[in-house]
Model the fold of this input.
Amino acid sequence: MIIQPKTRGFICTTAHPQGCAAQVQRQIEYVKGKPSIEGPRNVLVVGASTGYGLASRIVAAFGSGANTVGVYFDKAAEGVRTASAGWYNSAAFEEAASKHGTKSYSIVGDAFSDEIKAKTIDLIRTELGKIDLVIYSVASPRRTHPKTGEVFSSVIKPLGETYTNKTVNFHSGEVSQATIEPATEDELRQTIAVMGGEDWQMWIDELQAAGALADDATTVAYSYIGPEITHAVYREGTIGAAKNDLELTAHNLNKQLGESGGRAFVSVNKALVTQSSSAIPVVPLYISALYKVMKEKGLHEGCIEQMYRLFSERLYGEGQTLVDDKGLIRIDDWEMRPEIQQEVAKLWTDLTTENVYELSNLEGYRREFFQLFGFETDGIDYEADVNPDVAVPNLR
Done:
């Protein structure tokens, strides 16, 4: 079939297998072109099929030569429906990892569930023995609690007061005002339950109890802080409250793992085009302005560049891992440079529908959005007939 992009708001409902494979291969080639990393040997990535999770798995396998287990919730092609982008990404990764000579396994299902945790741990004990790095990179709008059965849904809302600021429709280029009503107490509670640290803690507890975690293991979860422009809807909103819970979990895990020589961190990463960030009002316009400034200064990084720097310079670099006064790894350090933020703030004041393509890199944002799903990728013939039914090797 001929596969073209079909969008619904900030979601693309189709994905292109060859385009996704090309994007994965580009990331692999980037890592293979860099110095190798004396890093982990056996890695578990929870949330492994897109974005920072996928990039982490690529850096582990092709930068450090690690064996990997990827857990993700993606769907295969069915009838006239293509598979999800994460499915195609994982298929491409598994094939490349096999050729590279590293072990890799995929487990598809709800990472929040006891069933998938047990299945993953059984695989680790059978095939790898112990894990020495756990990456937690889950982004989900809802969670079913494995013990109580309660279903939680997250919301992207401010706390306390109504919030109004600029936003953009990255398909049309229209800049408008977005107004978001504050979250209720129950919405806040549910968002923390979905996006906070409880599930991360559960994964580590169960890995430890099963003897599947190395004594000196490292675990990392990902977060974002961002500039003052986005704080009301992000860092000081419901998502920020969930990230505060995630950071508290990191402190607790660091003490827990530290008793046997292990470590736990939250890595604060750069703002990037992801399915998650596209859903947050204000953020796509901010990222478009940020991209313009950082690209002009030669400081722009994508997921793979960020994760290679995280592994090579922070987690497994020489000496002690560099953290800020709150114990956070700051891979957003280039984004948050004062001179970068000053220029972005200046652009922000002037941004309108009429000048958005001139004052920001909105076209770059839009293109990267479609590349998440395998479209607008150089070297791919999108008029060609392709088979959407792609198998994931090593699927368990």
User: Anything to note?
Assistant: The two ends are 28 Å apart (CA to CA). The longest strand covers residues 213-223. The chain is about 40% helix and 15% strand.
